[in-house]
Amino acid sequence: MNLPNYMTLTRIFSVPLLIWILSSRWFAGVHGGRELLACGLFLAASITDGLDGYLARRRGQITTLGMLLDPLADKLMVTAAYITLVQFNHEMVPAWIAVLVIGREFLVSGLRTIAATEGFTIEASDLGKLKMVVQIVSVVSAILDHRWYEWTIGRFVLDIHLIARMAIWFMVTISLVSAVDYFAAFWSKIDRTATTRRRRRAFILSRPKKFGIAPTAAQQPQDK
């Protein structure tokens, strides 16, 4: 077990802690304490998402366990956050948005699993990376929106409610677009793989003629 894998495990173990903070009443008496603590935990876990992969590549510590745990931790954090937000801030995150987010994650995971069985990989696209950033902003802003509609800092007013609303809808849009992008990449590679296999099969069937091997009785032309 190396440092990147420990960081990934920490992210997984933070999932039930995030759910407990948002669901329990322990911090309800502290003005904004529950929201700020949940946001801090989610942001810390999101930072480790990029940091563990960077350290694994930098140190040459990419392992099979890490390749399994890293995407699992990402999906657990995102799905747990949105499912909890359906209860915590239903006005901002209705149930259908959580279903869409979770369905999109299952779709991409399924495509990558099929791709792996076919002998190729589907790399994370720029849209997928942008989607992750937008998800972080939407979750944090939706949590803060539960307590504050806006923050006033001197003469500057930060409209948290507007930011949360825009981030949620942008996240929905980018999730759908990135899912289509992943499916297009998957379909093009599957199509190329099928074409290559057909060509190899045709080459193997034509080899006896190429090397002058006499055809079998079944291959002899019939007299008419």
Tell me about this structure.
There is one protein chain. The chain is about 75% helix and about 5% strand. It is mainly alpha-helical. The chain has a single domain (about 5-205), classed as CDP-alcohol phosphotransferase transmembrane (TM) domain (Four Helix Bundle (Hemerythrin (Met), subunit A)). A two-stranded antiparallel sheet has the order 1-2. Strand 1 and strand 2 form a beta hairpin. The radius of gyration is 25 Å and the shape is globular. The model has no long low-confidence stretch (mean pLDDT about 80).
CA-CA gap between termini: 73 Å
CATH arch. level architecture: Up-down Bundle
- What structural category arises from helix and sheet content? mainly alpha
Residue windows where pLDDT falls under 50 for at least 5 positions = none
Number of domains: 1
Largest sheet: 2 strands, antiparallel
Radius of gyration: 25 Å
Listing every helix as H and every strand as E from the N terminus to the C terminus, the arrangement reads HHHHHEEH
CATH superfamily: CDP-alcohol phosphotransferase transmembrane (TM) domain
Secondary structure tally, helices: 6
Strand order of the largest sheet: 1-2
What's the CATH first level?
Mainly Alpha
Overall pLDDT metric? 79
Report the strand count: 2
Name the shape in a single word.
globular
Strand content: under 5%
Share of helix, binned: over 70%
